[in-house]
Each structure stands twice: as C-alpha cells, then as structure tokens.
Design a protein that fits this description.
Number of helices: 4
Low-confidence stretches: none
Shape: globular
Largest sheet: none
Protein name: DUF3243 domain-containing protein
Distance between the termini: 27 Å
Number of domains: 1
CATH class: Mainly Alpha
CATH architecture: Orthogonal Bundle
Organism: Halalkalibacterium halodurans
CATH superfamily: Protein of unknown function DUF3243
Strand content: under 5%
Order of helices and strands: HHHH
Mean pLDDT: 89
InterPro entries: DUF3243, Uncharacterised_YmfJ, YmfJ/YflH_sf
Length: about 80
C-alpha cells in the first residue's frame, strides 16, 4: 500500500519529511521550493489515488506558477498545523 492511497497517511508522510527537513536546518524558503517541486512532480508523474489528491491535481492544472507556489505553501501549512 502506497502512502498516496490514503490522505491521512500522505499527510503523515509529508509531516515526517517536514520535521526531518526542519531538524536538519532547512529554512522556510528551501522547504517552500521543495514543496513546489514535489507538487510539480506529482502533477506530471503520479495519478491521484483519492478524492483529495484529485482536487489538488485539478487545482494545480488550472493554476499559474504563482498560484502553484501558493498551493504548495498551503500544503506545508496544513501539514505543520497537524504537528503543532
């Protein structure tokens, strides 16, 4: 079973990676850039596995680059809120 199969598992996975990045001293700018790159990769290479991922994929497709950065930043905020 992939972490992409379940929304909560996906958020937990992202949260673990975020905590690891922060503990290694990555600043918010780097984390934001990585989140955007992950979003780009997923949009181009990975078929959404659940409703939430489908919504994010659809939003990503219609967004311009600035809006895509905003989506990536909101995902970081969402994951952070679950761990604080």
């Amino acid at each position: 079973m992939s972490v992409l199969d379940n929304w909560e598992q996906w958020k937990d996975f992202l949260g673990d990676r975020l905590q690891q990045a922060e503990s290694e001293g990555m600043n918010d700018g780097v984390i934001s850039d990585v989140a955007y790159q992950v979003g780009e990769y997923l949009a181009k290479q990975v078929e959404p596995q659940n409703e939430q991922e489908r919504i994010l994929a659809d939003l990503w497709k219609v967004a311009n680059e600035e809006e895509q950065h905003a989506i990536a930043n909101m995902m970081v905020k969402l994951v952070r809120s679950d761990y604080r």
